[in-house]
Design goal:
single chain, alpha/beta, Purple Acid Phosphatase, chain A, domain 2, 2 domains, six-stranded mixed β-sheet, 13% strand, binds zinc ion
Length: 615
């Protein structure tokens, strides 16, 4: 056992990929091992600061910013930081896994060791809660399959860290017989069109408390557990706060205003997941389900007769991001507590004749497909096999739960039946926290079925974006694109928003392509200043056709937009304002913003380098 663990560790160290800084990794491994030994000798945690290598200083500062500002390591970090982070992760995780397996550390001892280590970059309460939440599944994996530091770190950090080549070395087969690509055309004059409401990332905070402090030192504030403040400039506002998730009454008012201003024209509604808030260290299964239930009841009350299409985000589960393979039949970890319950909440939204099929599909794997117009099928792709922060990818990283295989079969059936398809999913492929191989395989499927897929809708990033897919062989022909819809929640630094798409159809010649996208917001600071007696003033921030100066919204048009964003400063500044919902938002670099529009796998920088130059 001991030798096996040493062999695995050495092997993982040898094949650690391009981010390796072996000296630093060894130093972290030694210090971490010494910390664990001293812990065992003393019976409690010694002062952790004595065990931190000098070179870790910049890394700790960066990690603090990462957690505070959600900077994604793969996109933004300088190379030295990536090297250090990957090496520190492999060193520390390697020592902890080795000591667990060889010294027989108990779960409690592991919690007491990990809490001060985590406390170097995060609040102690947050650390303790997060460790208590995630340790049982990690322990189960260590006991039943073994965990490898170089895989754990590669998955969590993404990019080219640790075992990234092994984790990304898999392919999904697509069926032969691809039809010739069709060039999209504009609908004929006078043909019909309809409007769809899309809301994403609601992140309700059921405990939002006005007057609590907005910078509480934790990743999220303004909760009933947050302390109150007399300083009005630091107090949680009546309609929301930029460092917090959304009060229930703000969402309620948004739904009412949508109904008042667009109710008649909304044909159906898409909701792309993430209903619970970001206090991930203090949640439970019941608490997270309560958010999904309340959201579904609020939307039903506002739109009782409208077709509503939900999808699963990364926050519905407990712990957040934890989505075991659908066929894992271990009562403590099985996903059976979530999908069948959500299916019950949502089934009433489906067309009556498709409810049974919906419940069956959704209850099993948290995805579904449904015909929503004559000749138009909506396919909801569960993104949790792409979610790199889902520790269960250590258990099964090749097409977790068979989602991509199911997508291929569903699209093939649609192609044979002559249907057109809209795809709805939570996490855009290419995102920093979506497994690179998942993104690459997803894009391969999109390319194979480029004629059938008429639109794609994502959320998750909270920013307002788009994503162009290119042919894999030459990376020069834009074959499809997706919209990334801005969040309802203010977290972090964003005015609340909702989006309305205009779509060509239905009718004989319906293409079901999107003709326009309009984004509506209200200014949070103004609303808070006006007080609760006045409702927030929503207005149209922009629409894609006019404000991004696009004659049509086809893949080649978005390719042109991406190129222009790289070169035209004024145009970029305008786009960046929309990206952040015209609010303080995130200080993302231009490279990150532009590259996110052309990157479908976070281990392939080809298009990014083409547009922005190699780093
Ligand atoms: Zn979200
Ligand atoms: Zn999300």
């Amino acid at each position: 056992m001991k030798f096996a663990a040493i062999a695995i560790f050495l092997l993982s160290a040898c094949i650690a990929g391009s981010y390796a800084d072996k000296d630093f990794e060894n130093e972290v491994y030694e210090k971490s091992t010494k910390f664990i030994q001293d812990f065992k000798r003393l019976g409690s945690a010694p002062d952790v600061s004595q065990y931190i290598p000098k070179r870790a200083g910049p890394l700790i500062n960066y990690a603090k910013r990462y957690f505070a500002e959600k900077i994604i390591m793969t996109n933004e970090a300088p190379k030295e930081i990536k090297d250090l982070t990957c090496s520190a992760c492999i060193g520390a995780a390697g020592s902890i896994i080795f000591d667990y397996e060889t010294l027989g550390l108990s779960g409690e001892a592991l919690t007491n060791i990990l809490t001060p280590l985590c406390g170097v970059v995060l609040d102690k309460d947050v650390c303790r809660g997060a460790i208590e939440n995630y340790l049982p599944e990690l322990k189960y994996m260590m006991d039943n399959k073994g965990l490898k530091a170089s895989r754990v770190c590669s998955l969590f950090l993404q990019g080219k860290c640790g075992d990234w080549e092994i984790l990304n070395n898999w392919e999904i087969e697509v069926p032969p017989g691809k039809p010739e690509p069709e060039e999209p055309t504009l609908p004929s004059e006078g043909s019909s069109a309809y409007k769809v409401l899309h809301i994403s990332d609601v992140h309700l905070d059921l405990s939002y408390t006005v007057g609590t402090v907005v910078d509480c030192g934790k990743p999220m504030c303004c909760m009933n557990s947050t302390e109150m403040t007399n300083d009005a400039s630091k107090a949680a506002g009546v309609w929301g706060s930029f460092t917090c998730d959304l009060p229930v009454w703000t969402f309620q008012d948004m739904l009412m205003q949508i109904k008042e201003n667009h109710g008649e024209e909304i044909d159906y509604i898409m909701i792309t997941g993430d209903f619970p808030s970001h206090e991930v260290w203090a949640q439970s299964r019941e608490w997270n389900l309560a958010h999904s239930k309340m959201m579904s009841e609020m939307v039903t009350e506002a739109f009782p007769d409208t077709l509503i299409l939900p999808s699963v985000g990364n926050h519905e589960s407990f712990p957040t991001n934890s989505y075991p393979p659908h066929d894992l039949n271990v009562p403590e970890f099985s996903i059976d507590w979530l999908y069948p319950t959500l299916a019950q909440y949502y089934s009433k939204w489906m067309p009556e004749d498709q409810q049974m099929k919906f419940v069956e599909e959704f209850s099993q794997r948290g995805h579904y497909s449904v015909v929503i117009k004559p000749g138009l099928r909506l396919v909801m792709v569960n993104p949790n096999g792409c979610l790199a922060h889902n520790f269960w990818l250590n258990w099964q990283w090749v097409d977790n739960s068979g989602v991509l295989q199911w997508l291929v079969e569903t699209l093939h059936d649609a192609e044979i039946a002559g249907e057109k398809v809209h795809i709805m999913s939570h996490i855009p492929p290419g995102n920093g926290d979506c497994l690179g191989a998942w993104g690459r395989n997803y894009a391969k499927i999109i390319e194979r079925f480029e004629n059938t897929i008429r639109a794609q809708f994502f959320g998750h990033t909270h920013n307002d974006q788009f994503l162009v897919f290119y042919d894999a062989e030459t990376q020069s022909r834009p074959v499809n694109f997706g919209f990334i819809t801005p969040s309802v929640t203010t977290y972090t630094g964003l005015n609340p928003s909702y989006t309305i798409y205009t779509i060509d159809g239905p009718g004989e010649s319906a293409s079901y392509r999107v003709q326009n996208k309009e984004v509506y917001i209200f200014r949070l600071s103004e609303a808070n200043n006006a007080g609760l007696a006045e409702r927030p003033k929503y207005f149209k921030l922009y629409d894609v056709q006019n404000d991004l100066e696009m004659a049509s919204l086809f893949p080649r048009d978005f390719d042109q937009v991406a190129r222009r964003l790289a070169t035209d400063d004024e145009y970029y500044a305008k786009y960046f304002r929309y990206y952040n919902h015209d609010s303080p938002g995130d200080e993302h670099s231009r490279r990150r913003v532009v590259c996110a529009a052309v990157t479908v796998s976070n281990i392939d920088d080809t298009k990014c380098d083409e547009l922005m130059g190699a780093e």
